[in-house]
Amino acid sequence: MIRVYLVRHGIAADPVPEVPDESRPLTAKGRRRFRRAAREFGQIGEPIDHVFTSPLVRAVQTAEILARALKQDEVGVLEELGPGVPVSKVFAAVVARVKEDESVALVGHDPQMSLLVAALAQLDHADAARVDFRKGAIVRIDVDALPPARSEPRWNLKPRSRAIVEGLPLAKATADPPSKARR
After folding, report:
1. pTM higher than 0.90, yes or no?
2. Percentage of the chain with pLDDT > 90?
3. Which CATH number applies to 2-166: 3.40.50.150, 3.40.50.1240, 1.20.1530.20, 1.10.443.10?
4. DSSP string of the chain?
């Protein structure tokens, strides 16, 4: 089994026309909130073999905070974790770098992170539309391979309360799916 930890970057500065999207940093609130969530995650004591991040500034900053909390020295950049890259390309990039029985944290953006949750947990269309992956949240899903034939969604860490909840971050079923926040 491969332990996959999906991490959505923390709260970032709002887009402004004169700053390229890839350069938007975390806000002070985003850094503070994710630092607390990362410390909570670090106290669980689950070892992480690899931390990979999107090349965008807000994701790199989130990955560095996570690495510090886990006492990790290295954070690798995966171009495939950038916005708009298909899940299949993320899987191929991770398979080339992670062995069976290892663990990997992938830090990135929505909607890609929600799509990864749906693909790894093998959700049907209705449940995939209910994935509610908040900024700064962490989701653990154990898989047999990438793409998975068998998976086990374990838990998700809510960024604000830092509560660790069994299973996936799914919104309650409603007539309308939850709106997707900015990447």
Report:
1. yes
2. 89
3. 3.40.50.1240
4. -EEEEEEE---BPPP-TTS-GGGPPBPHHHHHHHHHHHHHHHHH----SEEEE-SSHHHHHHHHHHHHHTT----EE-GGGSTT--HHHHHHHHHTT--TT-EEEEEE-TTHHHHHHHHHTT--HHHHTTB---TT-EEEEEESSSS-SSEEEEEEE-TTT--EEES--BPPP-SSPPPPPP-
